[in-house]
Amino acid sequence: MSKKNIIAVNSNKKVTNSVLLGAAFLMATSSIGPGFLTQTTVFTQQLAASFGFVILISLILDVFAQLNIWRIITVSGLRGQEIANKVLPGLGVVLAILIVMGGLAFNIGNVAGAGLGLNAMLGIDPITGAIISAVFAIFIFVVKEAGKAMDKVAQVAGFVMILLMLYVAFITSPPVGEAIVRTFAPSEISIFAIVTLVGGTVGGYITFAGGHRLLDAGVSGIESIPDVTKSSVTGIAVTGIMRVALFLAVLGVVSQGLAIDPENPPASVFKLAAGEIGYRIFGVIMWAAAITSVVGAAYTSVSFIRSFHPKIEKYHNWVIILFIIVSTVTFAFIGRPVNVLILVGALNALILPLALGTLLIGAYKKEVVGEYKHPLWMTIGGGLVTIIMGVLGIMTLIEQIPLLF
């Protein structure tokens, strides 16, 4: 087992709790981006109260994916691409390329979302808002304690989003009773919605955000398992609370028979719910969701190439900054390349089964985890998620490719 494998969790409980909470919120806020807001709004509009069932199933799949990936990464003391290369030489490079491609493409959308958030919040031009947001994100990685700064931004933004979302959900007076019933007895089921939600919350770089953050903070080894499990479940819970709150807010608007603007569904919901103040609240939530996704996408994507060259490892914060600059410049001068986003979105659905399947194999290799024994129930649960998302991901890719031509 490598030297990293025997590093124990920091004995300072205050520091440990801060790191664990930071990793949880980094993963959660990375998954709560502009796409998250739009997807949840659109699917609630289509499925009404039955969307609760989609949320329930997606959260169950999320939990099995995250529990496995976070544990295997921290027990081994290795990043995802390093484990993949030990499972099959060269596989880590393939996984890194997919992660970086997806992270860069989606970060263009995240930067755009940040610009739209400032536009709704303060009336700033979207491109100007995107540039201001990018400068804010870059500043996080310029400061001396970049990791701690990133943790704090993720936590504060996460709490602000949750509180504002719960407020809007409350004032729309949704039919909570019906939502609870339809969560367990849906009148309509959408497989596409389930695939989209799972891909959006644990697809691509998001799957590794928390685990890689814990490694960088020195949290690894078998001794860390209880805390790592708590951190991963906390991240999924935060994502779940946000999705349920937004679901109820949209359901409250839909149940009143109000028409949602298809050009900007989530903004329309907030405006219908609380007028001009609601629109400003949407701006705050959109910006917070987007800026944390910009930070999470850049940080995690670069973490996949850090081990490929000593120079990248040494100057990884500057590589992260370059990643953010490229995303921003692309949006400012080219816009959001729709065709690229469609293709990468389809490929993103395949990254989860590839990554999870690879790590599950690594969990049974001594050169990866040493004497650690991975629980059978986690292997079975993770294996089922791998198969389900692999099949559905391929189906999605086949459907999306013709749209490019």
UniProtKB/TrEMBL annotation:
This protein's UniProt keywords: Membrane, Transmembrane, Transmembrane helix
Q: Where is the signal peptide?
A: none
Keyword Cell membrane tagged:
no
Where are the bilayer-spanning segments?
Answer: 47-67, 87-108, 120-141, 153-171, 191-215, 236-259, 279-305, 317-334, 340-364, 376-398
How is this protein positioned relative to the membrane? Multi-pass membrane protein
Q: Which domain of life is it from?
A: Bacteria
Its main subcellular localisation, reduced to a broad class, is membrane
| Native species | Psychrobacillus psychrotolerans
Extract one GO molecular function annotation from the record. cadmium ion transmembrane transporter activity
Question: Cellular location of this protein?
Answer: Membrane
Q: Mind listing the GO biological process terms from this record? A: iron ion transmembrane transport
This protein is called what?
Mn2+ and Fe2+ transporters of the NRAMP family
Q: Which Pfam families match?
A: Nramp
GO CC annotations? plasma membrane
